[in-house]
Specification:
single chain, alpha+beta, Rossmann fold, eight-stranded mixed sheet, 11 helices
Length: about 700
């Protein structure tokens, strides 16, 4: 691993008085909505119309103010150059075998998108198979999913234009990369599941007939089968639609190609489970689970025997076995019982790999097909191990290990012996031995113990002056586990602190931890995050004048809620692609599916009042001093529509008093985050660190 020669050769001072151009005068309209007899004003409703010229003019005007401010920060360019240097190293994915070829992704350093390479056998020459950098001139069209047929002779891949969740699908013959048939369009939230070489299953919604395709509701998911070399208009509807309306439908085909597996759900938590025997042309679907109460997934099958992951009667997850003749839950038998740690299983080489979360870090055990423990896998340290998937006949697999101070290292794992060997090590200019990452537990408002991992350079003084970034998410059963970020090196090498709190609402301690941060318990998440900030101040890692908070999507809601509830606690706030209008979120794209976590303002008077109380857009108060804020969004975000950020920023600019700037940074030709080009990522991170350091009154020590 190449190490940094940490020579601090120039100190760049901050500018005391950066001129903030006058904010655009945002028009207000007389829009009021009635919720259970309560009239709620929404003066910036017109910003929801992303197709209007007036909206586009507002975006351009706001971006002009933001870029004018950022352009005055004296060290912004130095941070950009430092990030470009740090980012410029070869990045590899773990390899995977399809047919006669081994495939892997590689980015030479500063390429906008990773390139898919392949080689034949172990000694074959490497060749480019698919280069997403050639999809568009500016790198904003990305590879958004790829699936090979069982024999590897065919491949279907998805592309995303401008970061949109709407995808196109292209099919190739892998031998010569010939395009087969027409490009499929308007595919959304879909895997591609091959049935032999005949065709594949995919899911989508009807494209909205009126209004904006980026913000209109998408409510009924439909599962289709596409036969190669036929028109998409003739694709067969397999599941869903008006007769069986479901908001989310996923499909897979078992490795032996015998069964089509379908999951169906109306929210982001809990699903039905169905299978269909593809060897019997007249077979219908067999129902395994007929309700949305818990999460379930088929891992694999041995003939008519199914191995299923389930949370039924097991909030932390377990693996059961059942048979096709009577697969209902009443007949299930435990194969790997629930433990105190959260389970996330995978299959490889005929084995079951049980990946557990132990206080948000990885613990992995290997079992045989009958649930007998074979070994606990010796991991390189405390961090996150991911991968552990392979085909049934494979003798080895690859996994990746990372932490907040260890760049991702790829290991080759021999399934029979349990031995791990380093396959690829990241050659980034970063020396992990100079840094420390430790886990602590702090107490939230109601007495709950919450874990947080704090990372910093060894030897820093805990005197309350360290610039600190506190990051969180807290929702949708998603776990924040240790992972390395090149961008965070900027903060760490300046003597800063990076802290990640594992809040309720996440999945770190299973479904009970998740539910404790949903609906009428959502305030627990904000209390946990606020308590994390208070802990960092109390223990003198930082002070309110040097504390920044950041989060994206549901994490953007987190930041918005906390900065409106405790504006004095934080100096800088970065709500990114956030859900900020909690009274209307469910009226756009797939937002209604988030109701398991949030509830909706239409559910009941009590639910409305709860949402109204913390909804960031509505919680803003006039004549209040808020943290220096840079709201971040993108014009093609069709998951959390940018109207959330537009309306929040407009009202925040109206209400904020004092000297802290309120900016909104709006990426163009970008979406919710996935597929963003390297150039866009570097620019975004440089702007964040520059804005944060400037508003904390810091200098920047340039490092060569």
């Amino acid at each position: 691993m190449a190490l940094v020669a940490c020579q601090q050769n120039k100190q760049i001072d901050s500018v005391k008085d950066i001129i903030v151009q006058p904010y655009p005068k945002t028009e207000k309209v007389d829009q009021k909505d009635d919720f259970f007899g309560v009239s709620v004003a929404d003066p910036y409703r017109w910003l929801e119309d992303d197709m209007s010229e007036k909206n586009k003019a507002w975006v351009a005007a706001e971006n002009e103010v933001t870029q004018a401010y950022l352009g005055q920060i004296p060290f912004r360019q130095a941070i950009t150059q430092r990030l470009e240097k740090l980012w410029n190293y070869e990045k590899y994915s773990a390899p995977f075998i399809e047919g006669d070829y081994t495939y892997f992704y590689k980015n030479d350093g500063l390429q906008n998108q990773a390139v898919l390479y392949r080689k034949k056998g172990d000694k074959g020459a490497e060749e480019v198979f698919l280069d997403p950098n050639k999809f568009s001139a500016d790198g904003t069209t990305s590879l958004a999913g790829i699936n090979f047929s069982k024999d590897g002779s065919l491949v279907a891949y998805q592309i995303s234009e401008g970061g949109s969740d709407w995808r196109k699908v292209i099919v190739l013959r892998t031998a010569d990369k010939t395009v087969l048939g027409d490009t499929l369009i308007d595919v959304k939230f879909s895997e591609l599941a091959w049935r032999g070489n005949e065709g594949f299953y995919y899911s989508s919604y009807d494209k909205p007939k009126s209004g904006s395709a980026l913000s209109a509701m998408t409510d009924q998911h439909k599962l289709y089968f596409h036969t190669l070399n036929t028109a998409q208009s003739t694709d067969e509807l397999i599941f869903g639609g008006e007769k069986l309306p479901r908001r989310y439908i996923g499909a897979g085909v078992t490795e032996d190609q015998r069964f089509l597996v379908v999951t169906a759900a109306n929210t982001t938590s809990g699903n039905e489970l169905y299978v269909r025997d593809l060897t019997n042309p007249t077979a219908g679907f067999v129902t395994i689970v007929d309700n949305f109460d818990k999460n379930h997934a088929i891992l694999d099958n041995d003939g008519d025997r199914f191995l299923i992951y389930t949370e039924l009667g097991a909030p932390n997850g377990k693996i059961i076995e059942t048979v096709l003749v009577n697969p209902k839950p009443t007949e299930w038998k435990d194969l790997i019982p629930e433990t105190e740690n959260v389970l996330s299983p995978s299959i490889g080489g005929g084995k079951i790999f049980a990946s557990y979360l132990k206080d948000a870090t990885s613990l992995v055990k290997q079992y045989d097909r009958d649930g007998k423990l074979e070994r606990e896998i010796a991991l390189p340290g405390v961090g996150t191990a991911s991968g552990f998937g392979a085909k049934k006949g494979d003798k080895s697999l690859y996994y990746t290990f990372t932490s907040y101070i260890n760049p991702g290292t790829i290991y080759n794992y021999d399934i029979a012996s349990g031995k791990s060997d380093v396959y690829k090590k990241a050659e980034i200019q970063f020396d992990p031995t100079q840094y420390e990452s430790k886990q602590i537990f702090y107490t939230s408002k109601d007495g709950t113990k919450v874990p947080m991992i704090i990372t910093y350079k060894k030897g820093i003084k805990l005197d309350g002056t360290n610039p600190t970034m506190l990051y969180g998410y807290g929702g949708f059963n998603i776990s924040l586990t240790p992972s390395f970020s090149t961008a965070n090196i900027i903060l760490l090498e300046q003597g800063g602190v990076y802290a990640v709190a594992n809040l309720r609402g996440g999945g770190e301690y299973g479904e009970n931890w998740h539910v404790a941060g949903t609906k009428m318990n959502k305030q627990n998440v904000f209390d946990d995050f606020i308590a994390a900030g208070e802990y960092l101040i109390k223990e003198k890692y930082t002070s309110s004048e040097r504390l920044a908070i950041a989060g994206g999507s549901n994490g953007g809601l987190l930041v918005g809620a906390c900065m409106t509830q405790r504006p004095e606690l934080f100096k800088v706030a970065f709500p990114a692609v956030g859900v900020l209008d909690m009274l209307r979120y469910h009226k756009f794209t797939a937002g209604a599916g988030w109701a398991f976590d949030y509830g909706t303002a239409d559910d009941s008077k009590e639910m409305f009042e709860y949402l109204y109380r913390y909804s960031p857009y509505h919680a803003l108060k006039a004549n209040t001093s808020y943290p220096a804020t840079m709201v971040m969004t993108a014009d093609h975000d069709d998951r959390v529509v940018p109207a959330h950020s537009f309306k929040f920023a407009a009202r925040l600019q109206e209400y904020n008093v004092g000297t802290n700037p309120v900016l909104i940074r709006i990426d163009t030709n970008a979406g919710h985050g996935a597929g963003k080009s390297t150039a866009m990522q570097i620019a975004e991170h440089a702007d964040k660190w520059a804005f944060m350091f400037q508003n904390m009154g810091m200098t920047y020590n340039e490092i060569k």
